[in-house]
Design a protein that fits this description.
By secondary structure, this protein is an all-alpha fold. The protein contains six helices and no strands. It folds into two domains: about 50 residues; about 35 residues.
């Protein structure tokens, strides 16, 4: 996350100096290596800044959170495993209404 904001800051600075997206990418590549934004992403950010965007931080997003890993969910899984030792991952995930992947992570 930090590297992305750093790259956006570099893009914003280079754009303000009159550089093109390709020139920006060529200057960033030796510094950021394989983590450098693609030329397409740099063009997107040039456009964002052209349209008046000021912040280099991620915009807030609505919708479902990426993870529901909470201490309460972890404890629910562990309690179920402790009380129902022969239950399968599938049975536990159905019983707790969570994904099998989550159950595996919490065990």
């Amino acid at each position: 996350m930090e590297k992305r904001m750093e790259q956006r800051s570099v893009i914003k600075l280079m754009k303000s100096t009159g550089a093109t997206p390709t020139q920006c990418w060529n200057r960033m590549r030796p510094v950021f290596g394989a983590e450098t934004f693609s030329k397409t992403a740099i063009c997107k950010w040039f456009k964002e800044f052209d349209e008046g965007r000021v912040s280099v931080k991620d915009a807030a997003r609505s919708g479902q959170p990426r993870t529901a890993q909470t201490a309460a969910n972890i404890e629910r899984v562990r309690q179920t495993v402790d009380t129902e030792r022969r239950a399968s991952i599938q049975e536990i995930s159905k019983h707790l209404n969570m994904s099998e992947t989550s159950v595996l992570l919490y065990i």
